[in-house]
Specification:
Glycerol-3-phosphate (1)-acyltransferase; about 200 residues
C-alpha cells in the first residue's frame, strides 16, 4: 500500500527517533513484521530511497503482491542457490551505499498474542561483513489497524506508531560473534514491543 493509499484509508504514521539519523549514510533497517503496512511504514521513515529484501512467495500471491510489489530483492528460501544470489545482490547494494530493509523474523506472526519471533541471521552477517550500522525499528501497533493482510480482522483508520532506535555500530563484531549482535538487536526490540503492548 502506498502512502497516498494509506492516507485515503485514514491510516497515518507517527515516528519517534531515539536520535537524529544521518540519512546520507547506508544502513540496514531491521524491523518487526505484523502487517502489510510495515512496508509503507519503512518508506515513511526514510527520506532516501531504500531497498527491500523479502520472501519471493509474496510476489506470487495476487493479493500480497499488491502490497509487497516494492520488494527489490526476492528471496526463495527453498533454493539455496537463489538465496545465495539474493544475499549477494543485497551485499552488492550495500557496497554501493544503498540502505537495505530486512524484516529479520522472516514472517508475519499469525497467532495472538503477537510477539517478536527469533531472528534469522542474514541481516547481521551482512552488517558485519560490510561494516554497516543496524537501525532497530519497532512498529508498535500496525497489527491493530491491519493485521497481516487484513483477512483476519479487516482494517480500520488509525495511526501507526513507530520507534526508531539509534544506529548500532557493527565494527566491534565479527563473524564469530555475529549472534551477539543479533541478540542485542532482538532483546532491544522485544523489550520495547512488550512495554508498548503491555505483554
Amino acid at each position: 500500500m502506498s502512502l497516498l493509499g494509506s492516507y485515503c484509508a485514514g491510516i497515518f504514521y507517527r515516528v519517534k527517533f531515539e536520535e537524529k539519523i544521518d540519512w546520507s549514510k547506508p544502513y540496514i533497517l531491521c524491523a518487526n513484521h505484523t502487517s502489510v503496512l510495515d512496508i509503507t511504514a519503512m518508506t515513511y521513515i526514510s527520506p532516501r530511497a531504500i531497498t527491500f529484501l523479502g520472501k519471493a512467495e509474496l510476489l506470487k500471491n495476487p493479493v500480497t503482491r499488491i502490497f509487497f510489489k516494492t520488494i527489490d530483492i526476492p528471496v526463495d528460501r527453498k533454493s539455496k542457490m537463489s538465496s545465495f544470489r539474493s544475499f549477494k545482490k543485497a551485499n552488492d547494494m550495500l557496497k554501493e551505499g544503498k540502505t537495505l530493509v530486512i524484516f529479520p523474523e522472516g514472517k508475519i506472526d499469525k497467532q495472538y498474542p503477537l510477539t517478536i519471533h527469533p531472528f534469522k541471521s542474514g541481516a547481521f552477517r551482512m552488517a558485519i561483513e560490510n561494516n554497516i550500522p543496524i537501525i532497530p525499528i519497532v512498529i508498535e501497533n500496525a497489527w491493530e489497524i491491519l493485521w497481516d493482510d487484513g483477512h483476519k480482522l479487516g482494517s480500520h483508520p488509525g495511526t501507526v506508531n513507530i520507534q526508531v532506535f539509534a544506529p548500532i555500530n557493527t565494527r566491534e563484531y565479527t563473524e564469530k560473534n555475529a549472534s551477539d549482535l543479533e541478540d542485542h538487536v532482538y532483546n532491544k526490540m522485544l523489550l520495547h514491543w512488550k512495554l508498548q503492548n503491555k505483554l
